[in-house]
Amino acid sequence: MSTGTQRVLGELLAVGRLQAFAVSAKGFAFDPRTGQSFSINETGVRTLELLVETGDVARAVERLAADCEVPAEVVEGAVTAFVHQLGRYLA
C-alpha cells in the first residue's frame, strides 16, 4: 500500500473534507464547501464510506475486496486511484 495514498486520505480526513460530503445512497454527492455536486457509482459510495469509517486505505481495500469478492490487488489499484482523484478534487 502506498504511503502517499494513506497520506492523501489522512489529509482529507484531518480537515474534515470527506466527512462533510453529503452523499445519497444512489450516489448523488454534494460538496458544501464549493457548492458543487457530482455522482459516485455504488462501489464508489461504499469505498467512500469505508475510507471515512476506517481511516485506513489498507483496511478499506480488505473490506471492499471481501464485500465484492474481488482480488485485493485489483481493489487496491482502484481505491488508490479514487483516493488520489478525491485529493485532486478536494484540495
What does this structure look like?
This protein has 91 residues and is mainly alpha-helical. The protein has a single domain, classed as Orthogonal Bundle (Arc Repressor Mutant, subunit A). Helix content is 66%, strand content 9%. It contains 5 helices and 3 strands; from the N terminus they run ααβββααα. The chain has a 3-stranded antiparallel beta sheet with strand order 1-2-3, with no helix packed on it. A hairpin with a 4-residue loop joins strand 1 (22-23) and strand 2. Helix 1 packs across helix 5 and helix 3 crosses helix 4. The two termini are 22 Å apart.
DSSP strand tally: 3
Strand order of the largest sheet: 1-2-3
CATH architecture: Orthogonal Bundle
Structural class: mainly alpha
Number of helices: 5
Choose one word for the global shape.
globular
Tally of discrete structural domains: 1
Radius of gyration: 12 Å
Whole-number mean pLDDT: 92
* Biggest sheet layout: 3 strands, antiparallel
Write the element-wise H/E pattern from the N-terminal end onward.
HHEEEHHH
Percent in strands: 5-15%
Helix content: 55-70%
| CATH fold-level topology | Arc Repressor Mutant, subunit A
Q: How far is it from the N-terminal to the C-terminal residue, by CA?
A: 22 Å
Low-confidence segments, ≥5 residues, pLDDT <50?
none
Report the oligomer. Answer: single chain
Per CATH, the class reads Mainly Alpha
